[in-house]
Amino acid sequence: MTFKFWRGGDPFIWLTGSALAFCLLMITGLVGIILYNGIGVFWPSDLRQFVLRNGDIAMGKVIDRQAIPDREGQYRIQLKMGNRDAYGLDFRWIDEADIERVERPTDAVVLERLEWGDAYGFIRQINEGDRVLATGADAGWTELQPLLEKAAERWEVIYAIEHDEMGQLNRQMEELRLEERRLTMAQADAAALAALEEQNRALWVAYEEISDRLNAVRVENERAELVLRLAEGQERSVRVADIVRTYRPNDLSLGGKIAVYADKGWEFIAGQPRESNTEGGIFPALFGTVMMVMLMSLAAVPFGILAALYLREYARQGLFVRLVRIAVNNLAGVPSIVFGMFGLGFFVYGVGGSIDRLFYAESLPTPTYGTGGILWASLTLALLTVPVVIVATEEALAAVPRELREGALGLGSTKFQMIWNVVLPSALPGVLTGVILATARGAGEVAPLMITGVVKLAPDLPLDAYWPFFHLERKFMHLGFHIYDVGFQSPNVEAARPMVYTTALLLLLIVLALNLTAIVVRNKLRRRYATAAF
Amino acid sequence: MSEEKTEVEGIDSVTVGDDAIVEVEKLNMFYGESQALFDVDLSIPEREVTAFIGPSGCGKSTLLRSLNRLNDLVESARIEGSVRVRGEDIYASEYDVIDLRRRVGMVFQKSNPFPKSIYENVAYGLRIAGENRRSVLDESVEKSLRAAALWDEVKDRLKDNAIGLSGGQQQRLCIARTLAVEPEVVLMDEPCSALDPIATVRIEETISELKKDYTIVIVTHNLQQAARISDNTAFFYLGRLVEFSQTQQMFTKPELKQTEDYVTGRFG
Prior knowledge:
Chain A is an alpha+beta fold.
C-alpha cells in the first residue's frame, strides 16, 4: 500500500505543487505590500481633529493603529501632524483612551509647501504687504485661489528666466572661459584675449539685466501671505508663493479627491523632486533609468549576439572554446559591484580620463568624461549583461535543428547565408528571451551605478534641446538609487517612507513594461518563425 | 555476426548503362576511428532512379551525403578515394562546394521547410544565388511547385508560412525547393519515412515524373518502394557495396545469396 503510494508519484506532485505555490505566495506578497503601501500615498485622506481629555488638541491624518504593548485591549493611533516647522516632528502617537472626541472640521486646509512639508490648519487671514485681503476660513479660501494662480504664473516666468535665459548666458560664458583657456594654453596674442574679455563684459551686462528682472518677479511673489491657525491655537504665516497645492480634504467630494489624487500622481511621475527628493516628482530618475537601460541594451545586445554567433557557429569547438564558455558563464555570476569597480577604473578614469586629456584639455582639472556619467554607467551595466545575452543566444543557436542548417547548405547557401537567412531568424525568439532577462537584470541593478555616475539630484536630463542633444557625460538619477536615497539617506526617513513605496512600485512597473514589450515582440516573432513540427 | 561478415565481399565495379553522371571510385569514409564505407565503386546513370537499400547503419546514407559533400559538416569525417560528378573530382581542393550543392540537390528524411512563406521557401535557392528579378522568381516558383505536384494545393496561399502545410505537403515543398535551383542530380534520404501511405504514394508519383529531367538517387528502407520506383538498386551491407544491378534483376534473380536473403526479407 505505502509502496504503491510512493511509486504513484502523488507525494512528488504535492511537493512540486507546493514549491510553485510558495514561489507565487512570495511574489504576490512582495507586489501586494508594495501596491498596498504605494498606491494610497497620494490619496487626500481626511484631517481629523482630536480633543484629548487633558485639553490638548491635535489635528492630522491617521496613518496607523496599533495595539499598545503590555496593555490588553488598548490601542493607539499614529497621527501625521505636518507643520514640521512648528512642532519639529511629523508624527505623534495618541492613546485612544486619552481621546475625548474626534472632529472633522470642514474648513481645515492642507497646504503643500515648497519647504517644511505639509501644513495643516485653518486660514485666519490673507495679507498682501500691509493690506488685509480677507479674514476667516471661507473668505480666505476664496481669496486664496486667484492668488495661487498668479503665483503659479510667476513661477513659470521665474523658471523661464532661470532656465532659458540665464542657462543660455551661462553656456555662453562657459564657452568663453574655455576659449580663453585654450588661447592662453596656445599662448595667443593679447588682442584676441582682449576681444574675449569684451564679449565677456557684454554678457555680464546682459546677466545683470536678467538678474534684475528676476529679482523684481521674486519680490512681487513674496508679497502675499497667508496666516494659518494651527489646531492648538498657534498662528503661523505662510508665503502664498510657497504653496504648491492646497485642498480641504474634509470638504472634498469623492470626485474632488480623485482629482487631487490624479494631480499628485501626475506631479510624481512628471515633476521635479523637492525637499531633498522626499516630495514632488521623480521624473529625472524615471528618465535616467529608461535612458540608461536603452543605452545599455544598445551596447550589450549586438555585442552579445555577435560574440555568441562566433562562438557557436564559427569557432572550432575545442578546449579553448570550452574555456571561453566557462569564463563567460562565470562572468554572469560576478557580483555587480565588482563590475562597478572595473567600470570606475577602466571607463571613468581610463577611457574618460584619456578623452578629457585629448579633447577637453581646456576644461581640466574639471573633468568632462573623466567622471561618472550615464555613458559609463550604461557601458558598465552592458558589461554585466553581455554574458547573459551570450549564454542565451548560444543556447538558442544550438537549438536550431540540424535539418534546417543542412537544408540551407544543401541548396547551395554559403555558411554566412545559412546563418543569416535561416539560423538567426529561427533562433530569434530564444535570443530575445535572453535579451529580456539581461535587460531586466540591468534595469534593477544599482550597486555598480553608484560609483559610475548616479547621483542624488540631477535635474539636467542627459537628453535635452541643446546641442549635441545627447549629453552622455552627464550624471543622472536612477529609480533604484532613488529608493535607497529617499529611504535611507534622507533627513526625514519616516516621512519619506511612502515615497519609497511609490518609487518601488514605479520601478516594478517599468521593468514589467520593458519585459512585456519584449515578450510581445518575441511572441510575434515566434509565430512568424515557428520551426517545423509534425 | 562474424559468420555473416565473412560472406560480405564487394563485387567489382558495376556499370549500369553507359552515361554515368556520378562516379564513385574506391571510396573509403571514416568517422574518427571507425570506418563507415569500404572501397565503394559505383556509377550512377543519368536520368534514372537509383535506389540505395540495406539494413540500418550499412553506410547508404553516408554515401549519399558524401555525393554533395554534406559530410563536410561533421568535423571528424575523413574521406579517401574519389567522387566525380560529370568527370570532375568534387573532393579536389579547388572544387567549389557551393556550386556542387546547387548541381547536386538534396531532400532530407525529415521535411525541413525554412520558417518563411511557401513562396520564399521555393525561391530561396535562387535568391541566395543572387537572383532577385520578380518575374524569374515567379516563374521558377510555379514551375518547381508544379514539378513537385504541389502547385494546385498551394497556389492561393503562397504567402502563408510553410509551417502550416501538412507533412506530405512540406516534403513536396522541400522537393520543389530543391528543383528550383535546377540541379542535375537530386539526392533523397528516405524522403517518405516520416509520411503516411497516401503522402508516400504522392511523393513516389512525383519521383517517377521527375526522372524524365533529373537523375535521382534515393535511400530507402522500404524494399517495395525501391522495387516500385527505381531503375537500378544498390545493396549495401556493413559499409560495403554488395550488389548493384537493374532493379528488376535485383529483386527477381540477384547474383549473391546475401542479396537474395535481404530482398526476400530473411534478414534486415
